[in-house]
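From the pipeline queue, job 12 of 40. The input is one protein chain; the requested action is below.

Action: predict structure.
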Amino acid sequence: MRIAYSVTTALLLTGSVISLVTGNPVTAQTAVPVSQAGLAPAGAPNSFADLAAQLQPAVVNIATKQKVRVATSFNPFTGEQRPIEREQASGGSGFIISSDGYIVTNNHVIASGTGQNDEVDSVTVTLFGGKEYAAEIIGRDVTSDVAVIKIKAKDLPFVEMASSQESRVGDWVIAIGNPLGLGSTVTAGIISALQRNIGAGGAYDRFIQTDTAINPGNSGGPLFNLKGQVIGINNRLISPIGANIGVGFAIPAEEAEPVVEALRKGEKLQRGYLGIGIRPVDEDTADSLGIAKNRGELVGNIQPNQPAAKAGLMEGDIVLKVAGKEVTPEQTLSYIVANIKPGTKITLDILRKGKPKKIDVVVGERPTEQEIAQSNFNPDEEKDFQGDTESSDAKVIRDSFGISVLPMDERIARQLGMPADQKGLVVDIVGRAGTAAAKGLRRGNVIVSANYKDIGTTADLVAAIKEAKTAGRRTLLLGVKPQRGATQYVAVAIAE
């Protein structure tokens, strides 16, 4: 950087000389390319070493353990079946926010393999110096994917959280964490985008995007600015190979901090909800109605007995504003509503059949993410895998077959036109390159059995996969029930 500044200075001096000789002054109004406009980066460090040395002691490694069912034993004399369990280890990163041992991480780091709503059996925190502590889970929030744990220790080094809204695209940032189980690792990069909507939906689909190397194991760790403040919690990556390709995402600190404080105090988190299925207004829809593209969201379906239905919102309505705030890709309807206290009366600015209209609605309380996914299940919707926040069971199923699944319930059964008491796992996402896709499985299919054993939970399917692998089999015979017709039996390869 010293060379760059020297060259810039030389160019400025040269410009002055040319001005004096030719008589043509170089003024502020002279049009020049941005690269020549004196925008040399101020304060770009020669090294991150001092900052890293200061911050590393406040970043921790988090290891978890849980017992999972891997197979079932059968006693031919008694006819009894008993689960065979083994201990499964996982982990991630976190950072200390107080000298008495409060630590922030991602919920999925400490979520059980049976789902995001369940906890692991034990959590162990390892400090930078190698000292280990058993940790207590203080609070968890599935929706924001934020959790707070605590260790019994005093006088610990800690870091502070600061709003990312003061940051700019192009600012330097560093990530510290425990990628791929290697131990404390420091990586550096820049902010690639702010308030990035990655299409995951929900109340917290706004991320800091960075090219800083983030890999599995970095989850829950801090993303620092050059002041040493945590501006984001490393959360997920998008990659066709499952490892860093320079597209990582962090939860903005200003979004996480209120959740952290509520969890520390043991308060219940309440978020607003209208009870509608929505999608962005695409360019063709905007053109047909004569409105600006990337403005508003189209109401696809309305849940009965929910706030939107009670207020008279209709399918096909386009919501342009919520409580006076414009609905845009960066400020989605879900995000605005989720941050409104339940019970609040608000006004929606909508277009109905091309004509503007205002509707007053009383905001309800947002259900869990799984309940929302189940209530809004549309078998014709196309969905993609997002991030690495899935549970360990979900990861096994995805890695084995290239699919994700949801537990069947009465609401999904109704939307699929199946009996209310239908059992099984509903296929939610089908990866195009997966072995399930190659066998014709599609969204809305229901997996009812594996090698003729009934499947009711993700743990059942994972146990069947592991049992087949233990027996040396390369495929699993799945009983798959389509929306209409009889159950079909499909031998699906288990990917290595």
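Job complete. The chain has twelve helices and 27 strands.
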